[in-house]
Every structure is written in structure tokens, then in C-alpha cells.
Amino acid sequence: MAEENVEILRKILDAGNRRDAEAILQYADPEIELQSAIIGGAEGNTYRGHDGVRDWMAESDATFEELRMEPEEFRDLGDEVLMIGRLYARGRESGVEIESPIAWLGTFRDGKGA
Three-state SS for 22? Predict the structure, then answer.
């Protein structure tokens, strides 16, 4: 199951890079919890459920003209997968470009991102 989780995270990240929330939700548990350092992190927000994923996507689209993650490495941790890579973003209003290391920890339950 662990290798399947790596592939699921790859699909989630690919859908996120395409800005396709509905494609992400195909791989998301209905009770998913999303915490993000780039959107809502300073406020301590946790986005819950499918509506929370949609809200996070809408907020990120409002903030960034471009937002994508390029995975460089996946580490299979059983029920979790760690992605290490690069984040590329451009502010919608400011035009400021960001390039930064990023890590994403995905937890999986019954073949879905949780």
C-alpha cells in the first residue's frame, strides 16, 4: 500500500499544479485536513473536508497568479509520504516571484489522502 500512497501523492500534486481542486478530491478522504504554510499558515488555519480543500484552492488562487510544486524526492513512510521539492509562486497583486525549498507530508487512510 505504501508505494500506492506515493503515486496518490504524485497525482494530488499534479492536480494541484493544474489548479484542479475536483481532481484532488478524487484522492482525498472526505475528512481530509490540510495545513499550509503558504496559505493560512500564519493564521493557524486548518482546512477540513472537501470544502476546505476547495477553500484553500480559492484562497491560493486569489493570492498567487502562479503556484506550483516540483517534487524532487518522495520518501515512503508507510501511512505517510514525505515529498521534498521546490515551490514556485508569483504574487497576484505584487508580481513578486518566490522560489523556495518545500516539504509536503501526506497522511493516507484507505487509499486516500487524509
Answer: helix
Q: How confident is the model at residue 1, as a pLDDT?
A: 52
Nearest CA to 105 out of 114, 94, 93 is that of 114
Q: What is the pLDDT of residues 55-82, one digit of tens each?
A: 999 999 999 999 999 999 999 998 999 9
Confidence of residue 38 (pLDDT cuts 50, 70, 90): confident
Other residues' Cβ atoms within 10 Å of the Cβ of residue 97: 11
Q: Which three cell numbers stand for residue 2?
A: 505504501
Element (H, E) at 66: strand 64-76
> Which pTM value belongs to this model?
0.86
Whether the CB-CB separation of 69 and 55 falls below 8 Å is answered with: no
Instruction: Give the containing element (helix H, strand E) for 49.
Output: helix 49-63
C-alpha cell read off for 114: 487524509
Whether the Cβ atoms of residue 109 and residue 5 lie closer than 8 Å to each other: no
